[in-house]
Design a protein that fits this description.
With 270 residues, this protein is an alpha+beta fold. It has two domains: 78 residues, no CATH class; 187 residues, Mannose-Binding Protein A, Chain A. Helices cover 30% and strands 12% of the residues. It contains six helices and eleven strands. The strands form four sheets. A four-stranded mixed β-sheet has the order 9-8-7-10. Strands 3-11-4 form a three-stranded antiparallel β-sheet, with helices on one face. Helix 1 packs antiparallel against helix 2. The longest helix is centred in the first third of the chain and has 30 residues. The radius of gyration is 24 Å and the shape is globular.
């Protein structure tokens, strides 16, 4: 069953598409009623015939092409308006320094806004450590979550952290609906910053696993736990979407060295 919020998003998206189709209907009527100039200045009647021997440009055909293109664009935007999960298409460029949780959430929100899904509230899937530490699983809402193509990757928090989740290279799309580079691509960008264990909780103990709670870009110092969105690459076999290994520092170059670009998972919490 769809939630009330998801149903409303679908209804609004459908309304937007219908409004556009009505606009194009009006456009077709205008093309059929008014006379349009041909390449040689002749007039073309509403039947599409010219007053002389010269053929007119087929304006209705051009309008059909425009309509199909516009409808396809509207469909893509409708899918993205129902999107509740994505991988960031770009990092913030500061390695493990995301400006804390607030900065990471803002990054998710900005990318979602640009993709037409800014009406939702977005949080980054990140944990923090120490006093007042936060578990990533506790800050992403209740689900369900779908990608930009409408594919559901998990129905709820428990499903997301089980073997039943559908996160992989083909489904962990960015906010534009594009596949994110994995282990077999150049450059490899399959490391996703999480600071989190497989069960969605913060990494315990005094050792850094969050680049000082996402405020450090120190070269060769500190660490961040990352997951692999393509579920491959760690020779030890630990290749979970949210948990695989630590980075050898917090600078951008440290992340790049092991296959990262400072990318994040973003989830709509409402």
């Amino acid at each position: 069953m769809l939630s009330a919020g998801t149903a409303m998003e679908n209804f609004r998206a459908t309304q937007q598409i219908l409004r556009r189709l009505v606009s194009f209907k009006d456009f077709f009527l205008r093309v059929g009623v008014f006379e349009l100039p041909t390449l040689r200045g002749q007039a073309v009647s509403k039947t599409g015939r010219t007053t002389g021997m010269t053929k007119a440009i087929c304006f209705p055909t051009m309008a059909c092409i425009a309509l199909l293109t516009f409808a396809a664009s509207g469909s893509a935007q409708a899918q993205q308006s129902t999107m509740t999960f994505f991988v960031t298409s770009v990092g913030l460029g500061k390695g493990g320094d995301l400006g804390g949780l607030q900065g990471a959430d803002r990054h998710c929100q900005n990318l979602a806004q640009a993709a037409g899904a800014g009406s939702k509230t977005w949080h980054a899937y990140l944990s923090t450590q120490g006093q007042g530490g936060v578990n990533a699983k506790d800050r992403i809402g209740r689900g369900p979550w779908t990608n930009a193509k409408g594919v559901q990757i998990a129905s709820n928090v428990a499903d997301l952290h089980s073997d039943n989740n559908k996160i992989n290279k083909e489904t962990a799309l960015n906010e534009k609906g594009a596949v994110v580079n994995g282990r077999s691509d150049t450059p490899n960008q399959h490391d996703m910053l999480t600071g989190t264990q497989r069960d969605g909780t913060a990494v315990p103990g005094p050792d850094d696993a969050t680049c000082s709670n996402w405020t450090s870009s120190a070269d060769g110092q500190g660490n961040a736990v990352v997951g692999h969105h393509d579920l491959i690459g760690n020779p030890q076999g630990i290749n979970f979407w949210n948990y695989s290994h630590k980075t050898p520092g917090c600078a951008p170059a440290n992340l790049q060295k092991v296959g990262g670009a400072g990318l994040l998972y973003c989830f709509a919490i409402n």
